[in-house]
Specification:
The complex is a heterodimer.
Chain A (H helix, E strand, L loop, with lengths): L1 H14 L6 H24 L8 H19 L3 H23 L4 H21 L16 E2 L2 E2 L3 H24 L1 H6 L5 H9 L4 H27 L9 H14 L5 H17 L5 H16 L7 H7 L11 H5 L4
Helix pairs in contact in A: 2-6, 2-9, 2-10, 2-11, 3-4, 3-5, 3-9, 4-9, 6-9, 10-11, 10-12
Chain B lengths: L1 E10 L2 E11 L4 E5 L6 H8 L7 E6 L2 E2 L5 H7 L1 E3 L12 H8 L8 H6 L2 H20 L15 H14 L4 E5 L7 H18 L1 E5 L3 H7 L2 E6 L2 E6 L8 H6 L8
Parallel strand pairs in B: 3-8, 3-9, 6-7, 7-8
Antiparallel strand pairs in B: 1-2, 1-4, 4-5, 9-10
Helix pairs in contact in B: 3-5, 3-6, 5-6, 6-7
The chains are: A mainly alpha, B alpha/beta.
């Protein structure tokens, strides 16, 4: 049933777009990009870490690819990957130092890093300064440059599906299961006493999270065909966290739901400017107060008449594997 | 097997442990006794690698392990429970034990991402092993209950199960019976003295003399960071130093 629905959704995403108007395609592209950002952020949020600076890693990916492609004429396909790798390397370097911190201290350190990255992009000529880098070309496939919305839509779809599959599977692996052991300082101490090298696991999780942000960030920049310090700002980091919290942390599908709903809504509100933030804020407040498990917990709560909800996803493979 | 060589630990101006030395032989069940603040938990934390001693040396299985991190020590076979019942509260009993098996199961991230049949088989195997540990402690019925929802007596047993799942050589139990009813404490100690000590050497912190005398081979008494007694539990009440320092004001049931 679930598999059937998912198959249907993917088939629709592959087959329907030629019928869509460019504007609708644009909205779907933005949603797909944001869904990957949110799911990547979810990797560390599931581990008990909040990041106020994931836009910094998205920007690193975007700038890396933009620079490689415009200055060194490297193919964008490699640029995408390089974007992910560079974001991952920076995540590794920062994570090795800052993941010792917990709670707001970690969140602020990531925020500060993102601001430093942003300031560097603004300050130095090689990054194009405040004007950024324009004329970032779309990639070519079999001699055709993928310049239309529809052509590039398939690039985004392919990268998104591969990323989402990876991120989905990751949480059901023993690696993803071990990350759940590191959610608080106390459980981390317990995990360490069981032979779990917490620092290594946390750093790897952060690298994975930032790799996919950097990868999608690169794709994003090639979609926009330009990048500037004003594209990936604190407001993006902020929106991503709102998507995840509104959707709910209890399931992989929560962040996705939150992103699809709020990005869709945000695109509708775009013309209204600042109202977007206002609407997000109100939605977030209502969800936090009324539905701490996020929108994804709604059906379960309705079914069980408000029974206590597990905050964490069950390690399905593992518990399903128990003897019956 | 475990050799503590003249350990001193200072926190700022406070000396928590002063030249404490003793050895624990393979298969022993040793109780660490002492009033609050005597340095028992500090000693546990040092042996388990939570922090290094200021001075002194810890030798485990012939190897100097002073200053190793707690996950390194866990890999060498030192497991511990915490004084404050610490579990993965949001996860089920079975999942808690699965974390305990961590060091015995390779991560195999790629196989896991691809969900290969071999990986699934291995997962089922690991789950069976975890269930076996729960059965050993008689709490398999709670395998799907979220740890935070379990009664304290079961939680305490679960903390031991999680530590035992690492298949330790040396198991450090920090007040395993604290907060338990008399019956629950008896059940816990019977398990420690039979199933568990067959598998590993046990050092436990305990206040209760009924438990020390009833189940342990040997007692070590700490007082203000110094060892004042090391010998059979029966001798405790006859030792003038111990009586003066401690037993005069404590439970002597």
């Amino acid at each position: 049933m679930k598999r059937g629905l998912l198959g249907l959704l993917i088939a629709a995403l592959v087959l329907l777009p030629p019928l869509g108007k460019p504007y609708v395609l644009h909205v779907v592209i933005v949603i797909l990009i944001n869904v990957v950002y949110a799911q990547a952020l979810y990797v560390i949020m599931r581990m008990g870490y909040l990041s106020f600076g994931h836009a910094g890693y998205i920007a690193l990916g975007g700038y890396t690819s933009a620079l490689l492609v415009t200055k060194l004429a490297i193919t964008p396909w490699i640029g995408f990957l390089a974007g992910g790798v560079v974001a991952g390397i920076f995540a590794w370097a920062l994570g090795a130092v800052t993941l010792k911190l917990r709670g707001i201290y970690f969140s602020l350190s990531v925020f500060a890093f993102a601001e430093v990255v942003n300031a560097a992009f603004r300050a130095f000529e090689v990054f194009g300064g405040p004007a950024g880098i324009a004329g970032v070309p779309r990639p070519a496939l079999l001699g055709t440059r993928l310049n239309t919305h529809l052509q590039f839509y398939y690039v985004v779809l392919a990268v998104a599906l591969v990323s989402l599959f990876f991120l989905y599977r990751l949480q059901w692996t023993r690696f993803g299961f071990t990350l759940l052991a590191l959610r608080t300082r106390e459980t981390e101490r317990l995990a360490e006493s069981l032979g779990i090298n917490a620092a290594r696991y946390k750093t790897l999780a952060f690298v994975v999270s930032c790799f996919f942000c950097g990868l999608m960030g690169a794709v994003h920049v090639h979609y926009l065909r330009f990048v500037s310090p004003f594209v990936f700002t604190f407001f993006l980091s902020n929106d991503l966290m709102i998507y995840v919290m509104v959707g709910g942390l209890g399931s992989y599908w929560g962040p996705m739901l939150g992103t699809v709903l709020l990005t869709g809504l945000g695109e509708q509100l775009f013309a209204a400017g600042y109202y977007k933030s206002l609407v997000y804020a109100v939605v977030l407040l209502v969800v936090i107060l009324a539905l701490p498990g996020g929108l994804i917990s709604l059906p379960r709560i309705l079914r069980r008449g408000g029974a206590r909800e597990r905050v964490l996803p069950v390690a399905a493979d593992v518990t399903a594997a128990r003897e019956r | 097997m475990l050799e503590i060589r003249s350990i001193t630990k200072r926190f700022g101006g406070l000396t928590a442990l002063q030249d404490v030395a003793f050895t624990v032989g393979r298969g022993e069940l040793v109780a660490l006794v002492g009033p609050n603040g005597a340095g028992k938990s500090t000693l546990f934390n040092i042996i388990a690698g939570a922090f290094p001693p200021t001075r002194g040396q810890i030798v485990f299985n012939g190897r100097d392990v002073t200053g190793l991190s707690s996950h390194d020590l866990a890999r060498l076979g030192v497991a511990r429970t915490f004084q404050q019942t610490t579990l993965f509260g949001e996860q089920t009993a079975l999942e808690n034990v699965l974390h305990g098996l961590h060091r015995h199961v390779p991560a195999r991230v790629v196989a896991g991402l691809l969900a290969t049949p071999a990986y699934g088989k291995e997962q089922r195997e690991v789950a069976r092993r975890a269930l076996g540990v729960l059965e050993l402690l008689g709490i398999a019925a709670y395998r799907d209950t979220v740890a935070a929802d379990l009664p304290l007596g079961i939680q305490k047993l679960l903390t031991v199960a999680v530590a035992l799942a690492t298949e330790p050589v040396l198991l450090l139990l920090d007040e395993p019976a604290a907060g338990l009813s008399r019956d629950e404490a008896t059940r816990m100690m019977n398990l420690v003295a039979s199933e568990i000590r067959q598998r590993c050497t046990v050092v436990l912190v305990e206040h209760n003399m009924r438990i020390v005398a009833g189940w342990c081979d040997r007692a070590l008494v700490l007082h203000f960071g110094q060892k004042i007694y090391d010998g059979a539990p029966e001798g405790l009440t006859r030792d003038q130093g111990v009586v003066d320092a401690y037993l005069g004001v404590a439970e002597l049931a």
